[in-house]
Amino acid sequence: MPVANRSFLAACLGLLLLQACTTLPGPSETGEPAEAPAQPAPSKEVQPRPDPSTARKTPAVPATLPQTGQASWYGAAHHGKRTASGAIYDQTKLTAAHRSLPFGTRVQVTNVSNGKSVEVEITDRGPYVGNRIIDLSRAAASALGMIESGTATVRLESAGR
Fold first, then answer.
1. Residue 110's pLDDT band (cuts 50, 70, 90)
2. Which fold has domain 61-158?
3. Which H or E run contains 133?
4. Taking residues 84-91, what's their average pLDDT?
5. pTM of the entire structure?
């Protein structure tokens, strides 16, 4: 057999083997359906923060103040990253994330359990977890005495500026 025919035959055989290896399994010889490919387990991670470039395009809808609800705080993992407003997050500044208040809004936040209060500027969007109404910087959370607990019931009021 000439070399060209052997090369052609080898290539055809290779394609047949490749096709056989990539064919999905069918029903077994006993008539039972083939097992479906395993699906990845659902993720149990906390919902990630949205891409700031997308969040910036979300128009702010003024919220009615006062509001009372759960606050949380975010710190080192986000320190130095760009917020939805375009500002660089600094955990030592008195800032916060709110789902709808316009960027630059100044809000008086009061921890209802201990009466401590702090004024923050809205620079980011969030929180994106549960029933929380505001996500505070580490500095603001510290001023409210909620670093250890991680969350607190707070009252939001207009800072009047």
1. very high
2. Barwin-like endoglucanases (2.40.40)
3. strand 132-137
4. 96
5. 0.62
Q: What are phi and psi of 153, to 5 degrees?
A: -85, 125
With b for 16 or more beta-carbon neighbours within 10 A and e for fewer, the 80-91 pattern comes to eeebbbebebbb
Q: How far apart are CA 29 and CA 20, in angstroms?
A: 17
Q: What is the DSSP string of 93-107?
A: S-EEE-SSSPTT-EE
**Strand-strand pairing, 151-158 and 67-74:** antiparallel
Residue 143, sorted as left (phi over 0), alpha (psi -120 to 50) or beta, turns out to be alpha
Please report, for residues 74, 77, 119, 134, the alpha-carbon distance to residue 81 in angstroms, rounded to integers and kept in the order given.
Answer: 12, 9, 22, 18
Q: What are the residue ranges spanned by the domains of the chain? A: 61-158
- Average pLDDT estimate for 62-67: 82
Fill in the amino acid letter for 56.
Answer: R
Q: Within 13 A of 87's CA, how many CA atoms are on the CB side? A: 16
| Cis, bond preceding 127 (omega within 30 deg of 0) | yes
pLDDT in tens, 27-48: 444 444 445 445 444 433 333 4
